[in-house]
């Protein structure tokens, strides 16, 4: 007697095995790959068969009592409806581009998946984009469609006439607006039947605009495989995700880290947790962390700097077991405070919009405080000179990723419409990240700063990060940014902009300056000490929370001479 035949279930390990086989050169990248079909629909099947714990795949809270929870089946259904809206109402065909400018609303994740289902290319952006930013992005990308909220819609309307390629506009709102289709209404009415487009691995999946610190923003294009498959291993090794985990990354949806989270968590069957978080508030973050069964947390160092200022003994994080950071350098002092109060390590990672994870401190590897960790497979990461020659351990140079003879599959395809820039980003066999660092004899990488942020004083090259870390060790310093400043004798000198801890804000600035200068001389090489110090109430930051040293540099040198080494 044979019972009813069990349907053959997909093997969730297959995607990991595929990643490994490609990385080891044992298998080419599959000709066809689609994240929605090959990953999400697989988890739907496994979930239905009871092969996944009873946790959502997506869990959104707004802090005011409203929650959205979808398991993989519901995510599949909702995203198929959304795909029908994109295809049917917006007329999007595979390869067409859609700008996706939404705050942390569930629709951001839905539309991202819907784009993948329809083969449309998503172009995420931050909600702070101005009319000028929007016009530039819509014109350069020739996006056919945009989805956004009430707050950005008027800015889109103001420049609409200058964007002839823009054919449809979707509004995520409970009200209506002339010229816009209401996404929520269309979603409610859409069919759940949708055939996922069969995308090729090399087809484009996403375009990210760089922040444009050194010229007009460039378009970084990623393929279905580079993002869809590229984060499988780092999701497992660095983020340490399993199908029982609930992963909260506080990143803005316009920043690449939101996509990093999506493509790391879901292949591993984990839940993505999102708090709407209209503004960064340490207490809200800590309360959420203690209230929900979040197992894995990722924030930029800026946020951890805020969190460790709070009285952490008042909170209990019962489920939390793994913490990550990246996007800018983590001050060792912050890592130590977090570890001593929360009892968990902060595992730092390093990467760019152009790449997946380049360096990391995965679980189980010894952490050297202040280092970004070791090269993350499959990348061969080296420090090279300006011609692309590998430099020995200990020598500072360009942080670079090998792209020849084999370009890693988890790598951007190109700077769109900019072959000169794509070519200029390579030297010899390497892609040059634009960051300066050194590697020690154990293979750990130590970040000095972005190429343009490195200070050249009396022919010493000084990385801002080391000076900032030294300052951060002093209890008076809440945050510091170190940049180059003009000096009649030395050409350039080190200047520190410092936000003081509240208990030091009324101290005599002159005495404090001297004390901080002496402190830096004691904890790092004395020539690096800041000859100029300014106390400020806040530092300029990107929406993703990164310190904008370039803005401070421009303040010091003027617009034209913002980068002294590039000055005429
Ligand atoms: N762990 C880290 N330590 C130090 N810096 C980091 C770390 N992680 C990321 N970064 C910095 O962030 C950069 C990558 O950021 P991303 O690609 O998001 O855009 P951006 O560099 O901020 O914008 P743009 O390239 O347009 O100026 C890296 O090149 C590096 O300078």
Automatic annotation (TrEMBL):
It catalyses: a medium-chain fatty acid + ATP + CoA = a medium-chain fatty acyl-CoA + AMP + diphosphate. InterPro entries: AMP-bd_C, AMP-bd_C_sf, AMP-binding_CS, AMP-dep_synth/lig_dom, ANL_N_sf, Mitochondrial_ACSM. Its cofactor is Mg(2+); Mn(2+). It is found in: Mitochondrion. Keywords: ATP-binding, Fatty acid metabolism, Ligase, Lipid metabolism, Magnesium, Metal-binding, Mitochondrion, Nucleotide-binding, Signal, Transit peptide. It is an enzyme of class 6 (ligase). Its EC number is 6.2.1.2. Residues 466-546 form the AMP-binding enzyme C-terminal domain. One of its GO terms (molecular function) is medium-chain fatty acid-CoA ligase activity. The keyword Transit peptide applies. GO terms for cellular component: mitochondrial matrix. The keyword Aminoacyl-tRNA synthetase does not apply. Residues 48-402 form the AMP-dependent synthetase/ligase domain. GO terms for biological process: acyl-CoA metabolic process; fatty acid biosynthetic process. It comes from the Eukaryota. Belongs to the ATP-dependent AMP-binding enzyme family. This is medium-chain acyl-CoA ligase.
